[in-house]
Amino acid sequence: MEEYIREPCPWRIVDDCGGAFTMGAIGGGVFQTIKGFRNAPAGVRHRLRGSANAVRIRAPQIGVQAALLYGVGSSPLLTVA
Hints:
With 81 residues, the protein is an all-alpha fold. The chain has two helices and no strands.
């Protein structure tokens, strides 16, 4: 009976996609921080700048990809009971 307590289907999918975007952006930010730090030229300042640029550019894209993947997977039209 607990599945009937949640909100109706369209808003649940939107909320879940927002959570998936957040998790994807945070996970992508961590991964891109490490990747940008390793691929930047030598020097701490260059490495920190490369790390920040990688996060700024790629983390939102990874978040959107995670949200789209979750949205397609949680769509009631595609799920099989």
